[in-house]
Structures are given as C-alpha cells and as structure tokens.
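Entry 0007
Protein: Deoxyribodipyrimidine photo-lyase
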Amino acid sequence: MVSVMWFRRDLRLEDNAALKQAIDESEELLLLFHVNPDQFLGEDSSNQAAFFKSVDTFRKEIENSGGVLQILYGDLEECFKRLKERVEDWTDVYVNRDEKGYGLQRDKVAGLVFKELGVKTHAYYDHHIHPAHEIKTNTGSYYKVFTPYFNKWKELQKPNVIEVNFNAAKIRNDLLFKEDAKQFESFLTNQLPLHELELGTKAATARLDHFVESFLNEYKEARDYPMKDATSHLSKHLRLGEVSVRTVYNKVKSAEPSIGRDTFIQELAWRDFYNMIYATHPEQKDQSIKEAFRQIEWDNNEENFDKWTKGLTGYPIVDAAMRQLNETGWMHNRLRMITASFLTKDLLIDWRWGERYFQEKLIDYDPASNIGGWQWAASTGTDGVPYFRIFNPTTQSEKFDKSGEFIRKFVPELKQLHGKKIHDPSKLTVEEQDAHGVIIGQDYPAPIVSHKKSRELAIAAFEKSKKIT
Ligand code: FAD
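Output (structure tokens):
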C-alpha cells in the first residue's frame, strides 16, 4: 500500500506532525507538492516568487536525502485523479491541516476528491503553538482581545519538538510525472529572482540560532528600531514552514531568562491570536470586523494609492518603508504599522487595498497576520488601535529613526540630509535645499497630504460611520 505525504506550507523534513505519522504508519511513501495555478499572483509578486523558490529549495533538500518530491501541476481534482490512475494502490494521504482562508477551502475540495478516490485523509495541527479552537474563555467563546487571550495562552502546556526519523521512511523515488516537473521548472524561470533571499530549513535554523545568540536578550528594547535590524526575520521561514514554530518556541524558551525572551514569546502568541481571529471570523478578509466601521466613506484616491505603493508620499519614513518592501519583500514591523496607519488614516484609503498590496509583495505573507495587522492599524479589527489615536508619521520617524539612517538607506534623494529636517524635508529653506542637493517638489515630493488636516478628516469619517451603524 502506498501513502502520500502532501506538503503545502510545511516545507521541512524535521519536526513535522503529518510527516512523522506518515513515516510511522506507511509501507511506502510518496512525497508530493501540488502546484495550483488558481493561486498564482502574477510574475511581479515577490510573495509568489519566494514561495516557489522555497518549494524548489525543498525539492533539492529531499533529493540530497535520497528521495524525490513529486510535483503535480494543474487543477487539483484532475491532478489527484491522475495520481490514483498511476498509483492504484494509493490508499492514504497525510496533511498538516489549514484552519482558515484559502487553505481551508482547498482542503474541503480535496477531502471530497479523496473520498471519491477511496483514499483516507489523515490531518494534523502543525502550524501554530495552539490551534485556533484550543483557546476559549471560561464560557466557551473565543477571545476578542489579545491580553486575556495571552493570559490563557501562557497557562497552557506547550508542545514539544516532534522527532521525525526520515531515514526510516521507504520513499518512492522514481519521478512519476515528468511533464509536471518540467512545467514547474519553466514556471520557476519566470519568477522574480530574489537572489539575496536564503531559504530552506538550513537557512531558517541558522537564522534562529544567530538570533537567539545575538539579539534575543535585547529584543524588547531594540525591536522597534528599523535600522538596528534586531528582529529575528523568521517570519518568512515560519510562513513557508521551513522551520516549525515548535522548534522556534522550544529553542527560545530554553535560552537564558530575559525580558527579551518573554517579549519574543509574546509575539509568537500574537501569531496564534491572529490565526484564531481569522479562523473564527472568516469574513474578515473582505470585511471590517467591527460593524461600526463598515460604513466608512473611504477617499480611495488612486493617484495617492499609487504614490504610497511607490514610496513617493513626501513623508520620508513612509517612503523608506515602502521602498524597503518593494526592494526586499520584507518590511520592519514598526514600519508596517506606520505605513498601514498612513494609508488608512492620512490618505483615507480602504485597508483592503493595502492588505492586497502587502499580499502581493511580502515574502512572509500570512493571511491571518496580514489581515490582523491591517485591521489593527485601521482600527476596524477586534483589538485595534483606537480610531482617534492616529500615528503622526513625522514624530514616529523622529522617535524610531532618530538619526535618519534608515531613511538615507532607502531614500537616496535625501542621503545628504542630516539633522531633524530629514524627517520633514518640506521644512527645508530654499538655501538648505540648494546646499543639500534636493529640491522639494522636484527631486523629492512635497507631502501629498497635510497630516493635521487628514487626521481631522479621518476622525470625522470614523465617527460618521459609527453614527450610521
Ligand atoms: P520578530 O519580531 O522577530 O517576531 C517573531 C515572530 O513572531 C515573527 O516571525 C512572526 O511570526 C511573529 N510575529 C511578530 N509580530 C507579529 C504580529 N504583530 N502579528 C503576528 N505575528 C507576529 N507578519 C507575518 O508573518 N506575515 C504578514 O503578512 C504580516 N503582515 C503584517 C501587516 C501589518 C499591517 C502589520 C502591522 C503587521 C504584519 N505582520 C505580519 C506582523 C509583523 O510585522 C511580522 O511578523 C514581523 O515584522 C516579521 O519580522 P520578524 O520575523 O523579524 O519578527
């Protein structure tokens, strides 16, 4: 009898719940990845490029261990029917289940196909420390606010690392669908190259070790300053499943006690929290969670949106952040908060536009965390920033990029500027502009909106929506 281990966003051979069971329970095992064109985001998408680069890295890791990752390319139902025709004695499939969004819908469709084919599905929780349904209030409902959720989260026993004995598996290693593999390879050649991006379990583990050794202790103080670059950068590896969150948690937990360690663990709990919120509010991809803010009259000015995406708003910290995203596929957390606040409050543009732009660009794109982060910044989520407490991009810049080093790195037009005015170059006198080689409105844009005015308009729009509802 043949079993299939169907990898999706769990691209690793270590600490993998479904893979362990598949190895322990199967006579012969087929390792498989299904490329579904329904999910493609376009060739400009760094999210997509990173995802498939990771699949390719994983394929090579498996080959180095003497196995083969079978690629199926095309419509899901057609692909699995083809597999059954080819491998008649295929009886079981092992997966790490998705609890929400696209993955959940896909698993529902796949479940029906497997049933029709007479294949038994074995599904495991693997992506989070605590799955969505596990943490409830004493009255059996789901939490809406992070702090009480986290208090409960802390009390619960944490899962250990799962030992996987990959060498014990009898892996089928003849490539079954050569045409599909070829199609995948030609698809890969059309993706953004992302040369600098190191992916795979080895890179993820090295990153984790380096972070724990060099940054964990100071994480609480340093994590808010983009130029210090003192966060773990594990989000892309977690999103792709190149490292298990259990491995991350247990490694960090076993480090010397510190406020940094506790703060980092709290961030892993935020990841669980947003997973729970998305699983329990499936409508939140397309709708604000807070009913009171579903009637906001967004301005949705396309020209302003375009300037925001390109980093041409005239607010240097916002522009530097957007350019970091466009150039690297990643953005520092503090900057995600600043740019999301700027889009939704200063430009009064619908948070869903921003969420979709981040989806296209982020190499660590995770729907639950992204939607959660956007709804937090837009004040429309369950536990968002209050709508009247609006980030001032200039003071945020002065506080978190005091010397302007981060701005100079990503906004070369301003690289000659030192001192306070780098945070608001519209304040430069004509003489100063000449002296620093930057003419405002020509070399670098004047602010596209006035923060003071926009703040008033945003508060009025939120209050109006509240009244209508
Ligand atoms: P670290 O500071 O090292 O944190 C460690 C890990 O904790 C992260 O890798 C991540 O898995 C988790 N984490 C940290 N902060 C958060 C948070 N606020 N919410 C959920 N999990 C968190 N994170 C994503 O992984 N994918 C996204 O698509 C995403 N979109 C976001 C959009 C907005 C508007 C905002 C405000 C935040 C978003 N975040 C997202 C959360 C956060 O910005 C990133 O997880 C973090 O910047 C990743 O860098 P890091 O791995 O160095 O983080």
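Curator remark: Residues 223, 231-235, 238-239, 267-268, 270-271, 274, 333, 336-337, 340, 358, 362, 364-366, 369-370, 373-374, 377 surround flavin-adenine dinucleotide (CB under 6 Å). The two ends are 59 Å apart (CA to CA).
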